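In practice, a research group might receive sequence data for several interacting partners and want a quick structural hypothesis before committing to experiments. The following worked case mirrors that situation: the sequences arrive first, and a predicted assembly follows.
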Amino acid sequence: MNIIINGIQYEVEKGITILEACRKAGIDIPTLCHDDRLEPSSSCRMCLVEIEGSKKLVTSCSTLVKENMVVYTHSARVMEARKEVLDLLVSNHPMECLTCAKSGKCKLQDYCYEYGITEASYKGARRKPKIDTSNPFYDYDASKCILCGLCIRVCDELQGTSAIGFENRGFDVVVTTPFNEGLVNSKCVSCGNCVSVCPVGALTPKKQTYRHWETKKVRTTCSYCGVGCQMDLVVKENRVVGVEPANVVPNDGLLCVKGKFAYKFINHPDRLKTPLIKRNGKFEEASWDEAYRYIRRKVNEIKEENGPDAFAGLTSARCTNEENYLFQKLFRAVIGTNNVDHCARL
Amino acid sequence: MITVERLREIKEKQRPILEARLKEKDIATINEDGSIVLKGEYYERQVRIALKNCGIIDPYNIEDYIAVDGYSALADILMNKSRQEIIDDMKASNLRGRGGAGFPTGRKWEEAFKYDADQKYMICNADEGDPGAFMDRSILENDPHAVLEGMAIGGYAVGASKGFIYVRAEYPLAVKTLRVAIEQARELGILGNNIFGTDFSFDIELRLGSGAFVCGEGTALIESIEGKRGMPRTKVFRTAHKGLWQKPTIINNVETYANVPVIFQKGVDWFRSIGTEKSPGTKVFALVGKVENAGLVEVPMGMPLREIVYDIGGGVQDGKKFKAVQTGGPSGGCIPADLIDTPVDFESLDKIGSIMGSGGMVVMDEETCMVDIARFFLDFTVEESCGKCVPCREGTKRMLEILENIVAGKGEEGDIEKLERLSDTISSASLCGLGQTAANPVVTTIKYFRDEYEAHIKEKKCPAGSCQALVQYFITEKCIGCGACARACPVGCISGDKKERHVIDQDRCIKCGACMEACPPKVSAVVRR
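A structural hypothesis for the assembly, expressed as tokens:
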């Protein structure tokens, strides 16, 4: 199928949206409410494009390509509409970029920069500030919310929890939990996927102590279970200060509460860093060499006295597949017992 | 089970009873061709198709409906016509949706008819929400079976076995009549399995709206029936292909369905002989506002506005000057006096910036401020916007704020241009019809009454004398010093000696107009300006 975007002809697959076609062609179209993993909502109106023969602008995220369609992604009319949409959003948004935790990674900020919006044109009513801090891991600041609905849709369509939704109508719409009882009293499982998709600073991790430009990201595999979710550790001055899901197989940008928020053990003072050996009823720090020698000696002693079936091994889902393989090999081939098990089987 | 013979028997039994009742009440004329028309000039000037049974039959008695040929079209279709023939007839009739957009019903039905699916649905949009519109209500309350018959015909044509009527809960009487009508139709076997002994089965359920105007928008209505928050869907697919529960769904308005049985009774040619080439048939209008005879008016499409307002409506109340007429409710526009000869049909109204809409028609006289009218409709839209898309949620609110400032005398240079810019964005960038048409009242009032906007902003004057913040009450030298105004003033801001000219303290005046009322008519010394 052929379509013409900004005067250039492209061959595209049937059944894709204009947005997908543009992305494949390397044309950047701004979006605030779009996420490839979710059904299109077409509520932010940033991805508007002009189509020859159509009176109204159309949202590229929800319009399928047609044979010989002529699309303009950055015409004067389109740019004007996008600017006005941004202006309207900013007119109802606190200009707190100086202290906002999202600064530097905020899509609204980026687009305002790109489209030259310096201040709000409309100085009228603002959304009432309402902050829900009841969840132990993240906060929701309604005044910064642009109501793109990504949090609601990710919670509903991908997480399957449906803890949050829109309330009220028109200018008074807010994202909230049923009967306004606060996140902690809702069905929320604190997976934090809403926080990960929020394009602005409305949903932020609690006590965020970094600016985005101070950090670097380190890709790693979550060690909590066998799924192997890919994630980026947010690292500031060699300390892990946050976690962001990676949008790759197997987790497609999702995490659970443990992967998203339970990273503080990494820099925790109580964390074990060397093996401990009990001497005179007290654990004492030891070197790895010392520990291995101790284990080998004890294993040989017990095996000689009581046979290999005196041993049982239980391993953890927090180890990798390879580590678990080696563990059972150790028990079956070296020690000589089949008494080996794994917590994920429970 | 109902049969054609049984239907004829009921008609033969009930017709004389109905005629006797009408004669006794002396409210209608029975013509030679069997048609019944309500008496009085107001009704005789109209051409009633959708309203033809309103005020004539007893809505709680299905036999009354059968007595006026009700369900004969359905029986005939089920016995003698193929589904394709129905679609062809509907297309040939060019009946256009009466809910506002005017989409050809036959084409809509064809889309669903051609789309293969295990289940299809018919929906009747009875969520009539335009302020001042009550034509659907009248049909539902007075002739519910016409809607049921129209839906059943549509159901047969597209291959749907299930229908829903989405009716607003604020119409309790309509809900009651519909409940009774559905029950009676089921009892008689007109709804249910194997209707008229054919293999066509069709049933209808009621769904009550919860007071959201936006649920009159097709996809928001579908969401609401599915039990979700009533917000419009993004239109990747047509509802005729993927609608209710992702199945092919036809949504038509009450008035559209009420037209369907009559078209099949009297024929496509007859229907096309009424109205205009592109907009055949009639349209019901709710003629309200400053008009002598307010009420529901059904006239052939293409009738000039003047005839509706003057000949049927009796002109403007109290002999005041006609200023404008607002058509199409909050999505419509204001038509000024010099365009009063515009024929009322879909194309002509669209050309001058207004819309047919569901048929609201508000007549305004010289004392109506056009800026305030725009503010009134925007106030409604802001209240009823669902809040999903940015232009409608944020933009209409900003427009309202600007209009509120203008009528309060706080308008600034550049406000008109801001309104025009916002109108443009909201119209071209909103998600659904509500937003796309929300700016129409503002656009048309600026287009035809720009001088009024300018008077408000630059001179801080309301030419119509209706914006309270901008009017001043003033006592002229005609004052005889009787003191009636000072006694009537609730804030005591009028002073003056006996038999001397009185003065109003403008700083304290609350502009209630009590002084003007109190001033003896012979004197008329108090003026508003």
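Before designing any experiment, note the following. Chain B has a mean pLDDT of 94. Residues 4-272 of chain B form a domain with the Rossmann fold fold (CATH 3.40.50.11540).
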